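Continuing the batch. This is chain 6 of the set; chains 1 through 5 are on the previous pages. Same settings as before, nothing changed between runs. Recording input and output for traceability.
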Amino acid sequence: MIKQLGNSIKLCLFGVALLVIALPAFAGKAISVGSVVHERKEDEERRLLAIIRDKEAQESDRERCVQAIERLGEIRSITAVDDLINLITFKSTLRSEENPSPIVIDREHPVTPLSLYPAAGALFYIGKPALPALLRLIETSDPESLASQNAVYTLMAVFREDPKAGVLYLQNAGNNAQTPEASKRFLRAVERARSLFRIE
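Output for chain 6:
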């Protein structure tokens, strides 16, 4: 009996020793798995960016481009921000356009620039990291252009929980603008933002 107890104790000690030896190895594997996941995201970003940068694919395989843009938004790809800014007027095809009948807007899913223009939706999902690029677009674009209008809407959507903060963000950009023309563009953006989101 005593001998069996002694053997059991030895086995327990051996198990503990194995665990102590194995822990560093498992920790190392956990780190390596994390790095693999990170590499996979980078690979995915490169693949998606190659798709949306393909001018021919934008015309011939529009749906594939839309899916790539939406995926970049889903993974919050900061790397893709500039490319998405360049595609902010790239329009997805609505079913109502494929079947030219009177458009009925779904009240639960209203048509907005974020749904019509997938890059605007992706920038919205990326959120605050996209704000500087949206400001640059507003600063350098004709205030009446579709690009500027989409940029203002997307920027304000990022500030959806505090629209007044979005207006203040635009006002501050206008105050710090380097040229009178840029200042005027931001002023027009502020007016548009107030009108769109009914801010007094």
